[in-house]
Amino acid sequence: MENFFHTIFADASYPYEDSDIIIFGVPYDGTTSYKAGTRDAPDAIRNVSYNFETYLPRIDLDLSGLPVCDLGNLEIDCLPDLVIDQVERTVREIAGDDKFPVMIGGEHSVTLGAVRALSPECYIVCDAHLDLREEFGGSIYNHACVAKRVLDLGVGEVFIIGARSGTVEEYGLARSDSRISIYSPEDIAARGLDDVLDEIRGKTSGKRTYLSIDADAIDCCLTPGLGTPEPFGLRPEDIRAVVDRFGTVCCGFDYVEVCPIDDGQTAAVAAKIIRELIGLKNKK
Ligand code: MN
Ligand code: MN
Asked: What is the pTM of this model?
């Protein structure tokens, strides 16, 4: 039979039962405030994943035939609290089967479901935004509130890499709450990313850690496919360095907030980073 294209991530067609890494998409953008469209990200990221070679020279690994399964997109409800519940049940099941969840958003609010399911002690996020609002647009589950909700769960330490946008109240909280560490792009440029990542590694070592990538951590001039674009941000290779450090030691991973309204650059960065994460986890 001829080969057919599927709406699954490239090289992720292994059966669920036999896979160590489980990808799923959450096509939800119900609380986005500026530009809608992150609901289209999972399939945009999957589409561009077929553009890449299966061989990853940087890791010296070929991705074809690895035990990776893409479940497809979650059939989502409408209200954010219900979608977050769906994500929580999904991730609980994946983790309960001793598999590693890779969630593709959708907007950032969906991360809360994964964090609830996995109960990490530490939360590392790359994001332009603090996401520390108590509520926004009438919902405490808005994507602008996700880091605050993670803290409310009792997660002991939150590290926000690339932070450069928030209200005076959010910055007040970030600066006064010892559980929160923020690293602006200027801090990272001055100190060097390795120094920052060494610090975070020191504080999270041996602790159960969740890793979330909000695509807008990257400068919007480099990857403009974003619902809430911010300039003066990080570079794609900075995000890759974060995933290199923490991708193989975290208990769960997501890549959210890609809004494929650009020429595909933002989805391409997401797809490549997810592919390299899969490679790294299979290499170790
Ligand atoms: Mn965010
Ligand atoms: Mn953001």
From this structure: 0.97
